[in-house]
Amino acid sequence: MFLRIVIALSLVSLLVHGVVSDGLSPSSSNLRPRLVNHSAGIALKSEFSDIHGEIIKARLELERACASNDLKSVQAIIVGFQKSFQGLANSCSKTYNLNKQSPAQFARQFVNILVEFQPLLKTLNVHPPLLAGCSNVFRSSSTSINAMISFLKAGKVDLNSEVRKAKGSLDLKLYAQSGFRINSFS
Question: pTM above 0.70?
Answer without folding.
Answer: yes
